[in-house]
Design a protein that fits this description.
alpha+beta; about 15% strand; globular; about 80 residues
Amino acid sequence: MANQLRNAFAHNPWRPKWLVFEKYRYTYPITLDDGSTFTFDATSLDGGGVKPEQVGGLEFWIKVLQHCERLVSAKV
């Protein structure tokens, strides 16, 4: 999910659009270390504009970023 969202903003940060290759168009269950869960549904995102609810809302997205930050800092 993080990679797909990064790609959407990298191509046009003012109007991010999903570019999801067919081989990645699945649903992905996500569980964070704080117990938060979300299912990222990439089955029909390709070509559409990015909306916060597609990544669980802004609050969940912040939790994802914090989760990733903890994972990286734990490896150092």
